Amino acid sequence: MTELLSLTDITKTYRAAKRRIVTAVDGVSLTLGPGEIVCLVGESGSGKSTIGRIVTGLTEPTSGELRFAGRAAGEMKRRELRAHRLGVQMIHQDPYASLNPGLTVAQTLAAPLRRHFGLSKRDAHARVPSLLEDVGLTPPETFAPKYPHELSGGQRQRVVIARSLTVDPKVLVADEAVSMLDVSLRVSVLQKLRGLCEERQLAVLFITHDLAVARQFGRGHSIAVMQRGRLVEHRPTGDLIAGPEHPYTHALLRAARHEGLRALHRSSHTQVEEKHA
Amino acid sequence: MSVVEHLEVADTAEPVRPRRLTSAAGGVRQLGFGGVFGIVGLLTIVIASAVGHYLISVPRTDLNAILQSPSLAHPLGTDFTGRDNLVLVIRGGWDMLELAFVAGLLMSAIALAFGLLGPFAGGVVDRIVVGVTDLWLTVPRFILLLVVASLYRVSSTFALAALIAIFGWPYLARQIRAQALSVRRREHVEAARLLQLRTGHIVLRYLAPAIAPFVVISTITGMTAAIYQQVILAFFGLVPLTDNWGVLFSVAYGQNAIYLPAAAWSMFAPIAAICLLQLCLVLTSRSLEGLFDPRLRARR
Amino acid sequence: MSARDTAKVLEVRDLTVQYRQEDRVVHAVTDLSLALGHGETIALIGESGCGKTTAALAILGMLPAAAKVVSGAVTVTTGGQATDLLHLPPRELRAMRWRHVAYVPQGSISALNPIQTIGRHFVQTAQAHDLSRRDAESRGAELLAAVHLDPDRIWSSYPHELSGGTRQRVVIALAMLLEPEVIVLDEPTTALDVLTQEAVLRTLLELQAATGVSYVAITHDLAVATAMADEVITMYAGRGVEYGTAEQVLDGPLHPYTRGLMLAMPAVDSDLVAEPIGGYPPSLAALPPGCSFQPRCPLAEDRCRVGGAPPLLPVDDRRVACPPSVEQLAATRGPR
Fold first, then answer.
1. What are the backbone angles phi and psi of residue B18, rounded to the nearest 5°?
2. Closest Cβ–Cβ partner in A44, A252, A268 for C208
3. DSSP code of C189?
4. What is the predicted ipTM?
5. Is the pTM of this model over 0.80?
6. Which residue range(s) make up the domain with C231?
7. Chain A environment of B209 (Cβ under 8 Å)
8. Whether residue C72 sits in one domain with residue C48
9. What is the CATH number of domain B95-244?
10. pLDDT: is A118 or C279 the higher one?
11. Mind listing the domains of chain A with CATH numbers?
């Protein structure tokens, strides 16, 4: 399988207040092939979002190598690099903040079509309904003329997904893409996203702090766990959940199961009862 | 606090109803009482001043009617040469308005240029721009303005407005720069950059709408500042002698109007006019905030 | 269960709250009832738009002016005296608040004043309720230690200098300042990492064991309910649709919405693929006829689509507002 994207020993440091050096990412290596999903799991400060920003080109790594289809980013000419970068799109966490509040859904989706495919305004707008249907926003006529503040969170996120697909990307980076959505709606957005990615054989870097969501989305693929900038474990989803090797992964799983808490609750309840008996 | 904030916006099939500014009634409600007062007041002042400037001739001096209190013939009294105060006030507005608008607009234009150039060009250019802005900020600009105005006789209102604008842009430029930098980092702008949309498109559709309300409101604030500066300059006699309100005020003051009750009218009339103009400008700018942000619209 | 027989510290009876807007009525909460005993936790489970925040505000007496309490009572019993919070004059309400019913709002950063140190928050809150500065300082230090924070470091810190989990614990400590009988927790673990969530929940449980405080936990996260709740109410479209103990509701949900919610939440351990609930929750201003859930309900029958909302039917010692599911359960149990 040819690799679409590979990160080799990527490190990102920056200078914080009082001349401290903060290491956000420390020697991370990853590869993504077509149709491959990697769930990047970690807590805040683990560096997972920084990896997402490096992959999309919003941040430059301090050291390490980023390769697109085997070619190192540093070796490419500007135009070639830009073309590759266009093939990597991001879905942000906050669906409201990622949409231009002054543009309708149709305008938001038409803009990249006009820019990259030379379509006229009319032609671009003609393509919008099918894009909306692809992400499950039906009937498209009701959604196309709406502004972001007239949509709900789940609907907005679907528009964001549709927008990212307009440029035929090869890689999608989803940074906490469902964290701000209602629980029961997360599943449908996740299912839709996964379906689209499988259909188009997209590589997905799915960033989340929620192991349960990672397990769901990364079924049949792999989970990579990050702790304080380092990649501590990267194994197939099922194996990692069934038998975590690294102690940090172990701790995350335990917390996700809320094992300790139920017991604590029961014991504290007996305490209270005894106190007031 | 509006009700909408306390309701959870559900992920419903029928989300928040669109409130577009389709009706005049909706628009008027949007502006609020203050906004309507401000805009109507501004329009009134502009129309009255235009009428005064183009249609009403210079009031005659009448040495028999010096420093009179208000009467039927002279509703606001007369000044030290017997001219009718009301006519003077109506005629004095045009010049003030010209000054305010020209100064405000020029100031914003220069501030926009300097404020946006830095974040866009980046690198050395950015540093130069920031340096120039900061330097200009630390110089005691108003004193310098006084000096320059006294050294080079300002011959027209336009020249005076330009002068005020040149001395007034750095503060606004800094604010615009800060806004531009923050907007660039917003997620929808990042998304636009990732999609590699054209820079012009991003500036026009992403940056401009985000900073436009700010610029409009700052322009109005600039106008109020220009008016005050002009009045002070008039006191120093550095203003071209057209009978605008600032000049009327300083001349009346110079004629010791504060000591003579009847004469006080010739001083208070222009002051009241200036205050009314400032009030209308401020009220208008405050109410415009809601107009610009569609999110704020829904909340009202 | 002896706890249930003791006097209730908080009782809500048939609470109905509406917002009257110019062209429509929003039925935020309809006929909600609950009873909370000493040292117990009740979880209100639901997603956005189900009315749980309005319910919480009603309990705190913090409903906005636009809200109209159409009926119902919120009674807090402290020191043997029962007080109806909904009809108290503002001054007395303010005295009740924080002293007897406290609040941990959603999103700790917005609950704290960014230009004040944490210590100042404690002092201000205390002084607003006639406590001396010295008392505030000693009690504050005590509470910060109880939530596993270093009082010296935190007292002089500003909110933005602290991590999300630390801030959440600070807000909890603030809520405990006057030893209230009831604390309303609004989404106590949102925006927190999973390890931090565990730590915060652990802290809440420890505090409860030590002081006997009662919690009303508003959450969409079933995990929070699993960890903390004694009783659970599932809310949908402003109504409580399922009532029961945590074990009953979370291990064996009866109401189709509760079941749908469980199935829609991916679990770390489960092999099952999460399934979404089709459709969208209704707008509280435009509720469907009959049962509010019927457009999305797999068990919906004709009788569910007409008339008013279905009544709460007793099943063992729980209650479910869904006749079809109750009958289904009775059928599987067989004739007696």
1. -70, 130
2. A268
3. T
4. 0.84
5. no
6. 1-100+180-282
7. 100, 102
8. yes
9. 1.10.3720.10
10. A118
11. 1-87+202-277 (3.40.50.300)
- Listed by number, the residues of chain C in 49-78 with a beta carbon closer than 8 Å to a beta carbon of chain B are 49-54, 57, 63-64, 66-67
C281 touches chain B (CB under 8 A): yes
Which C positions 271-290 lie with beta carbon below 8 A of chain A?
273-277, 280
Q: Is the pLDDT of residue B18 over 50?
A: no
DSSP assignments along C20-82, one per residue: E-SS-EEEEEEEEEEEEETT-EEEEE--TTSSHHHHHHHHHT---TTEEEEEEEEEEEETTEE
Which helix (H) or strand (E) is B31 found in, with range? helix B24-54
Examine residue C38 and state whether it is found in any structural domain, yes or no: yes
The Cα-based distances of C73 to A4, B277, C249 in angstroms read 62, 54, 25
Give yes or no: residues C34 and C128 share one domain: no
- pLDDT (average), residues C131-154: 88
Task: Give tens-digit pLDDT for B98-142.
Answer: 888 999 999 999 998 888 888 777 778 889 999 999 998 888 888
Tell me which chain A residues have a C-beta less than 8 angstroms from the C-beta of B298: 149
Tell whether B300 is within 8 A of chain A (Cβ): no
Among candidates B31, B22, B25, B17, which has minimal Cα distance to B291? B31
Find which of A180, A261, A264 to mutate to test the C interface (most C CBs within 10 Å of its CB). A261
Mean pLDDT of A72-96: 89
Angle value at C-alpha C114, between C111 and C120, nearest 5 degrees: 85
- pLDDT range class, residue B294, cuts 50, 70, 90: low
Q: Which of B236-250, C3-17, C306-320 holds the top average pLDDT?
A: C306-320
Tens of pLDDT, residue by residue over C45-64, are 988 778 888 888 888 888 88
H or E stretch at B199: helix B199-202
Selecting from C3, C227, C264 the residue whose C-beta is nearest the C-beta of A187 gives C264
Bridge-based pairing state of the strands C25-37 and C8-20 = antiparallel
- Cβ contacts below 8 Å, chain B against chain C, sum to 55
Put simply, whether B1 touches C (Cβ < 8 Å) is yes
Q: Are residues C188 and C278 in the same domain?
A: yes
Tell me the chain B residues in contact with residue A111 when contact means C-beta distances shorter than 8 Å: 192, 195, 197, 201, 205
